[in-house]
Amino acid sequence: MARIELVDLAHAYKPNPAAPADYALRPMSMEWRDGGAYALLGPSGCGKTTLLNIISGLVKPSHGKVLFDGKDVTQLPTEARNIAQVFQFPVIYDTMTVHDNLAFPLRNRGWKESEVKKRVQQVAQMLELTGDLKLRASGLSVDAKQKISLGRGLVRPDVAAVLFDEPLTVIDPHLKWLLRRKLKEIHHELKLSLIYVTHDQVEALTFADQVVVMTQGEVVQTGSAQALFEEPEHTFVGYFIGNPGMNLLDCTLDDGGVRVAGQPLAVSAAARAALSGAQGKITVGVRPEFVECVKAGEGGEGGDHCLDATVTAVRNMGTHYLAEFQLGGATVAAKLRAIDAAPGDAVRLRFPPQRTLFYVNDKRVA
Ligand SMILES: Nc1ncnc2c1ncn2[C@@H]1O[C@H](COP(=O)(O)OP(=O)(O)OP(=O)(O)O)[C@@H](O)[C@H]1O
């Protein structure tokens, strides 16, 4: 297992990149700890695969270095990096048994047969493949074949890292749910360094200790599921994580507070200080889980943290109501335990100050 450092890393597929948009990966530096489980999460085209391929050695970066345990591996080919990889589609030997497929990476490195047997049993048990060990891979379903690919990726204990590129794409939804949790348990047990590319937030948040969120070739935040949910450092993280994502509303600075859709919204002293003199686009963010709905004319004690809005939709989701409101030209979503209003009604929406975040040019300031 290895600590992985990315130092001033950047990559452009086109020659002579000039503008930031010319880069598939914009300049970044970060360190991933030995034995950590990391997910690279972002929409299609944001640069996840480029970053994974730079770590595996399939792509040589145009700038910067990749270090494994302090050793510069940037110019080393994939086979000299001591990594395991699992791809979207199964990569296995159809004519071999499941056992021999799992044993292959170990036998290739000269492991004793008794040790091979022990390790294969351990990995097969974790992936619930024990009953299939004697079967020929060719007769198995695509799900089972992909489990073998996962097993082959996880079987060597001495790799620098195991890299996964959307490995659950072909897996049936129910098994996908089980495997996500399984991978987390396996990580806990085998303590391998895992790097996992996905565009699926549930997959990333279930599997990883740390999620690296990317957009347009840039890493905008690395954090735990809780940090990404509660304290998104960038408006993209607020929007991309959560279902629905964070409410993000344009606002203007006002004496002692801000204005949202022309209405005053009181802010904390800390937020006021952070916003004072801000230049550029100012955005207020509050997650649908934290928005409160009170009747028009009522604001209770927190009246100055309320804004007038109109209900546009209410859906009963079984565990909660998902309500939508019109606030000026913007839409605000709220997940509510109960709602005493119907579409067309005037209400007040309360943004609790401790759950209300502020962004200047998309970066969080308070
Ligand atoms: N070999 C290549 N040559 C030129 N441009 C490329 C190449 N590979 C990727 N790109 C471009 O680099 C950018 C990042 O692509 P990348 O595949 O890394 O993103 P991704 O987040 O993994 O997307 P996806 O989930 O769709 O694979 C995209 O604009 C893509 O078109």
UniProtKB/TrEMBL annotation:
GO terms for cellular component: ATP-binding cassette (ABC) transporter complex, substrate-binding subunit-containing. The keyword Cell membrane applies. It comes from the Bacteria. Keywords: ATP-binding, Cell membrane, Membrane, Nucleotide-binding, Transport. The keyword Transport applies. PROSITE patterns: ABC_TRANSPORTER_2. It holds the Pfam family OB_MalK. SMART domains: AAA (SM00382). One of its GO terms (molecular function) is ATP binding. Residues 4-241 form the ABC transporter domain. PANTHER family: ABC TRANSPORTER ATP-BINDING PROTEIN (PTHR43875:SF14), MALTODEXTRIN IMPORT ATP-BINDING PROTEIN MSMX (PTHR43875). This is ATP-binding cassette domain-containing protein. It comes from Janthinobacterium violaceinigrum.
